[in-house]
Structures are given as C-alpha cells and as structure tokens.
Design brief:
Length: about 160
C-alpha cells in the first residue's frame, strides 16, 4: 500500500488575509505554481483517488493533479485543521493504494507522529513545510483492526517558487 500525504501549497499570510473566513483563503501565486509542480510530480504515480480537506487552499492544491489524472477532488472533514489522529486514520483506512490526500500543518504531523509510534520508520528527516509530499509505504495487508499498515515514510521537499 502506498499513500501520498500532501500539505497544502502556499496561501499567503493568514494574518494579512482580508477576505471572508479563513476557510476560503486561496492559494497565492507561489502556491499555484507549487500545486502545478506537485501535479507534475504525482501524476507519474498514477493516483487512484484524491481527497482533500474542504478548506479552499487544500482543494486548490490538488485540482491541477485532478485535471491531469481525470479525477475529482473529493472533500472530507476528517482532514480539516483540528482533526484528530483517529479521524484522519479512519479516512486513511478507507483509501485505496495510490490515493493522495491533502491536509494541514497540524493534521499531517499528528498523523505521521502517531504512525511512527505504531512502528512506522521515517527514512528521511521530517519536513513540515507547505507543499511537502509524504510517501507512506507498507504491505497490502491490514492490521487485525482493519487499519492499513505503513512500514516506512519519506518526505519530499516542496518545490520552490519565491
């Protein structure tokens, strides 16, 4: 089983956002460039499903990949800021091999850290910046609780667009 966990691309400074609620803060120009680069990188993996936090910047991060792969970006509240490990793991347990998820800077570290506590090995130093891709690998079998088993995780640094 292979899962790709993407932190949303750059969306500008939350404190400077003058628009409506933060949930609709869009990607910045750099973020749009990052999302295009992420799509170019992930299309070679032949993604099977795209699932995003419902927050606009996460959806926008996966849209270029969705266009290239011919897949709709599904939204799931279990990837929103503040979601618990149990919520995000429940979603991950439902996903097929090759799925790509996009979430936030609190959810992803919690997910990775808790999977490490369950025995997953990090093969790279952690990187929690925006537009990182975590590649989680494991056997096709599942735990007795029907959860996916991930044995290794590696992070790919974000594309740079300054």
């Amino acid at each position: 089983m292979r899962l790709f966990v993407v932190r949303h691309a750059k969306a500008g400074d939350r404190k400077r956002w003058k628009g409506a609620p933060d949930e609709v803060r869009p990607l910045s120009n750099s973020g749009r460039a990052q999302s295009a680069a992420l799509a170019e990188r992930l299309i070679e993996e032949k993604p099977t499903r795209l699932v995003s936090s419902p927050i606009l910047r996460c959806v926008q991060t996966l849209e270029p990949l969705g266009e290239q792969a011919g897949l709709a970006v599904e939204v799931d509240e279990r990837l929103m800021e503040g979601a618990s490990f149990e919520e995000s793991l429940a979603l991950v347990a439902e996903l097929p091999d090759g799925a790509v998820i996009c979430s936030h800077g609190d959810v992803i570290p919690d997910l990775i850290s808790d999977l490490v506590r369950r025995g997953m090995e990090l093969t790279t130093e952690p990187d929690w910046r925006k537009a990182t891709i975590w590649v989680l690998d494991g056997p096709d079998e599942r735990s007795p609780d029907d959860e996916p088993i991930f044995t290794t995780a590696a992070v790919e640094h974000p594309p740079r667009f300054d």
